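Hello again,

I reread your note about wanting to compare the complex against the isolated chains. To keep things tidy I'm splitting this into two emails, and this first one only covers the full assembly. Below are the input lines as submitted, including protein chains and any nucleic acid or small-molecule components. They are followed by the predicted structure of everything together. The single-chain runs will come separately.
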Amino acid sequence: MSARAATHFEDLERQEQAARLGMWVFLASEILFFAGLFALYFAYRNEHPRGFDLGIARNTIAWGSVNTAVLLVSSYTVALAVHELRRGKRAAAAWLVGATVALGACFLAVKTGEYLEHFHEGIYPAGAGAFFAENDEPGIKMFFTLYFCMTGLHAIHVIVGMGVLATLLVRVLRGSIVPAASYPLAIGAVYWHLVDVIWIFLWPLFYLTPGGVR
Amino acid sequence: MNDWILRLLNLPPEASTFAAGVDWLHFVVITTTVLGAMFVFLLAVYWLVRYRRRHPLETTAASSISARHEIALIAALLSLFLAFWVVGATQYNHMRSPPAGATTVYVTAKQWMWKFGYPNGRASMDILTVPAHRPVKLVMTSRDVIHSFYVPAFRMKQDVVPGRYYTAWFEATSPGQYAIECAEYCGVSHSRMGGAVQVLSDEDYARWLDGKPFDAPGARFEGRVEERGDLASAGRDVAARRGCLACHTIDGQPHIGPTWVGLFGSEVTLEDGTSVVADEAYLTRSMMDPQAQIVRGYKPVMPTYFGLLDSTEVASLVEFMKSIADATSTPAITLPRVAPEPGTGSRGSLP
Amino acid sequence: MTTIDAGALFPGRAPGQDPTETAPRPVRVSYLTDGTTVWSWLATTDHKRIGVLYFVTTVFALALGGAFALLLRAEHLTPTRTIVDAYTYNRLFTMHGIVMVWLFMIPSIPAAFGNFLLPMMLGAKDVAFPRLNLLSYYIYLFGSIWVLVALWMGGCDTGWTFYAPYSAHSPSAVVPTVFGIFIVGWSTILTGMNFIVTTHTMRARGLGWFRMPLFVWAMYGTSIIQVLATPVLAISLAIVGIDHAFDWGLFDPSRGGDPLLYQHLFWFYSHPAVYIMILPAMGVVSEVVPTFCHHNVSSYRAIAYSTLGIAFVGFATWGHHMFVAGISAFDAGAFGVLSMLVAIFSAVKVFTWVFTMRAGSIVFRTPLLYFFAFLFLFVFGGMTGVAVATQSLDVHWHDTYFVVAHFHFIMVGGTLTAWLAAIHYWFPKVTGKMYSERWATLGAVLVFGGFFLTFFPQFLLGNAGMPRRYYDYDPVYQPLHVTSTIGAFILGAAMLLVCLVLVVALFSGERATANPWDSRSYEWYAPSPPPKHNFDREPVFDRGPYDYAEPFAGPADAADAGGRIS
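Full-complex prediction:
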């Protein structure tokens, strides 16, 4: 299929401009969506600093960091995919998008493993679980409830992002996204970058502690 | 403030030291803004008539307000609004700063009643007794959801939040009875969570402190107009007003006394080991002679209601307990369990 | 772009001839007749049809919310039980608020009129993302159906504000209710995004930002708020739903939570939300006034900039809902002064509209009559807003009927009135028909009278100290309540009359010309009703939309409604 503007657009350039602006506006709303939870985190951390520190100490820093690395690499692969597609290298772009999706799956696998480990230790959301019977520092229940909320919401966005990229992958393979009009892949990549950036903020809040309380 | 202005604005009597200033500001703000609004509207009506279309194809020359005039208008209006803010914020800050040496009363709000604890150890429900001409500081929290302590005649209001203690204060200016309203929606009986502030003169207050009789000012507190629906709902109101719910919960948790959920008709173990079915006879006896048959695991602290409840009220309480004999409900918060003294035996079976 | 010689296209019409008197030529195919199957409507991507779909749905929402209101008012005829019990009353006022705010008020002008008019006012053929536009409608419909499901399950009783911790423990149908609103919120966000992108990228050649019709500015400002604020509502309601369904206790003090944080989160959205509800109304007013006064807007930039001012400063004032909630005195002072500042932007608009009348050539038709109702009620209500923003006064008025009266004056006296003005103003454009001026005027007068009788007594109730959301009340308040209820039923009857007048006009009204009001705004250069693609050739805008110094020179009833607008 050749690149042609939709009937209501004057030309392809305007259509691309509109699509890019649209994605950025949508990302602004996604950021505000997470912002509510970040606001809760900061307010509660301020009220219960010790409980939060204990909770952070409980999380496995290694897994969090692996996930950070996985997502950073995945952002690189999808950015490279856009670059390759623009240069006309359709096959390379397709492989790279596929790799991004696979890395997303890795992220989810690690996350699932972490959740299972928490359940095993008796840490559930809502302050439920045997762990909280012994550790009743105020704030530690809230820390873990927020942990499940925020990483859970993020994981949902990872799944959505994987779906978006998978759809784009199919379109690249079919040839309906062409180098001359590669912007659909570019804006899908931007969405993936946001998913990555949100994790970059979650990682220090839930895994890295000031002062190294262990 | 002029009495006729108060009446025109439908304001309650000014019964605290806040009220006069607040009412004055109210009058100024409303009058200036409404007059301003009227002026703008009438100007529009005037121009509607003056510039009506005389010929179907009339054109008009473009014109605009000069920037200078626009800025002048905006500056004038902003100054007026900022003046309102300055006075309002000053009054508000005064309301948020209890003076040193104020008498403190501890207030606990819960669905659907007000409980007051006084420094001399007295407690009351729904009626707050304070002296006139002396600042009173309220330290308030809620046992369950957010409520709001509002006395219209004092022009004061403060939300009451679970898990936090908030302070509010007032100084009443004349003896009388002034309604307390709950001003934050808190569930089905939100509109029935009223009370009264009973403001006493110095002598009467001294007599009240000593527990001596005094002349209660104003009309007897009528309380909320109650819907005399079925007896069971009336019983719930009675339980709230008479203080039963201070010790007996209706959410399944044992507290100072056994919970009423599932109580009626169940078998209860008494402190001497015998069992008895909690039927009408047992329950009414417990109200009149509470020390006779105490449930195992509870302290003998229930006061007698002999002479305080009339027979309709007793009946309505029993009906209410019957109506929740099969109920289950989720407690909003976990109450501390009041343990019996050591040596009084293990915890009894609870309904 | 080719220039079209209007004279050559429309023989028999001399320039300067009153366009409202030209006998209309039959329009060949309009957006209404371009495909008449049900599927062509349900699967349409035409922004005008989507606007009509939203309009019809929002009217149903208004009827439902209005029915709840009449039940509430009927209950208040007596101080104790009249027709329902306390639990039902509590669910009625909650569902009234929810249906009115999210299912009616927020989409009423933007989704219906914004969709219809925005592309036409920009000289575009459609919005930037037409299929997303249709999806947004179905998301709105799906969310609304969930709210109806919640109703069927008994409804929610927490108040439209869902305050924690009560909302986590209420025995009512909280979860399906918040789920429905959550879904509807995404429709709002996507529509806002669509409008922002359309405004940035689809303006016709020569149409700069400061020559667009002011209604576009209003849609733009509204869309900014929708995109930034609504997601915060979404997360707040998601947490309420999770707390209620799974007891996660995010605001439970016994688990480290703080009920006040919920209020901050909720009002961070809900204060800008009220600007989502009023900015479009102001946009309508900015169109109606210059048209019927035949005069340019006395300061275009004042309206444009004050729109942005409201959109941005409105995000900084939410704490004025929490003056007695336990925020610090310093915070209260900050929110107080910012609330005063935001009021100035509205005042600027009011002055600008009124000064537009000066040296105009005014004809008093129904839309302008609605403007006068708006002027009276919105300014009056806005002044009571300044009053409640005064901190010490709000201590007395917070959570009383005074606040209820204040916001109804703005939302009904302001937004609903402007919505009615919009219907009567753009009725000929949308339908190609004209309504009976006499009956429409009667409807407007009755709406105004019924409204005022309903809500003015509520200021007095609030002054006396009657709290809101009260099922029982002190019998001394009964006369005011009875008056208010009488007013409510008059208002209800008036709305039915207005509806009847318009339905009759829809079927047997007179044929309307392209520009019956002799407006200069750009949507009037297309026929009534417009063809599917609005303009067959991209128009070029040489003149401003409020230029009444020259006679109207656009095509009267163009078969071909593109070309040069000069």
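For quick reference: The mean pLDDT of chain B is 85.

B.
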